[in-house]
């Protein structure tokens, strides 16, 4: 299994961090590219829509999972 890496991002002027395994990070980068967004913009979008009881790292993983499910069912 891939090691978890901590990364930092600025969202709406606030510096925060998240931890993801490399495969999740790589898919997140690919999703951002597909949507023609910067990675920071995609992370900010996910952060805005996540339930407040879900941490950012989990919300990012769930977003990647949902994206993959939609791609396979299309």
UniProtKB/TrEMBL annotation:
Pfam families: RHH_4. Residues 5-67 form the Ribbon-helix-helix domain. The keyword Transferase applies. The keyword Nucleotidyltransferase does not apply. It comes from the Bacteria. GO terms for molecular function: transferase activity. Keywords: Transferase. This is Arylsulfate sulfotransferase-like protein. It comes from Mesorhizobium australicum (strain HAMBI 3006 / LMG 24608 / WSM2073).
């Amino acid at each position: 299994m891939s090691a978890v890496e901590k990364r930092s991002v600025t969202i709406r002027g606030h510096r925060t961090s998240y931890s993801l395994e490399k495969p999740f990070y790589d898919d997140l980068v690919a999703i951002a590219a597909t949507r023609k967004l910067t990675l920071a913009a995609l992370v900010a979008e996910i952060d805005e829509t996540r339930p407040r009881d879900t941490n950012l790292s989990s919300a990012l993983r769930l977003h990647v999972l949902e994206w993959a499910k939609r791609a396979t069912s299309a």
